[in-house]
Amino acid sequence: MKIRILLFAVCFQLFSIQAFALIHGEETSSKIVSTVSLQINHHHWLRSVNSWDEYQSQCSGVIVGKAPLTVLTAAHCLREAKIEHDTQLPDLSITNQAELGIEYAKLVKAFYKSFDEVEKNLALDVAVLMFDAGLTDQVTFMPVHTGKVPKQVLLCGYGTGYQEVESKHPRCSEKNVLSNLKDFYQIMPREYEESDEMLHMKARAQFEYKQDIVKSLDTLVAVNRLDETGHYSTDEPMPTSGDSGGPWIIENSKGAYQLVAVTSLVERFYNKTRFWSFFKKDEPLSDYPYVAYGIKLGHREVLNFLQNAIKQGADIQFSDKSMSFFGLGNQ
Predict the structure, then answer these.
(1) Is residue 166 part of a domain?
(2) Second label for 238, Cα 20 to 30 Å away, from 87, 209, 244, 278?
(3) How far apart are CA 60 and CA 77, in angstroms?
(4) How would you class 93 by CB atoms within 10 Å of its CB: exposed for 0-12, middle for 13-18, buried for 19 or more?
(5) Residues 220 and 305 in one domain
(6) Closest by alpha carbon to 202, among 136, 268, 149?
(7) In 3D, which of 232, 216, 208 has the Cα closest to residue 287?
(8) What is the pLDDT of residues 258-309, one digit of tens each?
(9) What is the CATH number of the domain that holds 134?
(10) Residues 6+ apart with CB under 8 A from 313
């Protein structure tokens, strides 16, 4: 598959879920990939002082329809989101409206599951956001493709890695999709096992534990951080802070972009060894993801969720090939 990169991920890390960026990707016009930058206001209750602690995070999202403006993102991005008193909706905004051609946008509906539910079932890590918006002709959307995910995708997001500056547009990068999510050697090859067997074993144990507790593993699609020679490389683009909810994109035979997944979680293995040379670099461990997962939008459980949002007014467009699948068509 040939995907043209024109101008690349808040990911959620299991057991310590937070918003994470697409390191080393190429800056791409947000209109070309219909990608939005979301600023979300959060708070949580501090019992020690009996007051709210407020903070902000950034996530990515993708426009999937314009009547009304509808955005898909990751549900975990809304963990501890501050709820506005008048609307009872998450306090968030689209920060790249001007670049997208959006004159104004006010959230009017939001469909997502609680973080407790998402943590138990990753198939629920999708949120649908509906906006009352003023749109120009420049605004683009990306239809959802429910078919099989190909061997290569284009990942995009507004995340920012170590020593990277914030970008006006998202960063994008082509990535090869893992063929077997249960094959740990696709994430950490045998040569790393041979050089430090104990550390490799610890990493495998963490990986397999996640496999055991994750419900609906078949809803996930994944990419690793190995280069063309099969070696781990921090120069390889990978989702990090700010990329959650960003699109996983394919290109059809006519050259049009279609959406197959959104960025969900990043799994890291927080151990160092002198036998693994890439750990000698200066980057912090937060920029060392071994595997990143996306939620496949063609999974039946995800489609059930999207169908419910459509019934309540969301505009989620689908590609022609997938219109008849599951009874969903262009609205």
Answers:
(1) yes
(2) 209
(3) 9
(4) middle
(5) no
(6) 268
(7) 232
(8) 999 999 988 887 667 778 877 666 667 667 778 899 999 999 999 999 999 9
(9) 2.40.10.10
(10) 68, 109, 130
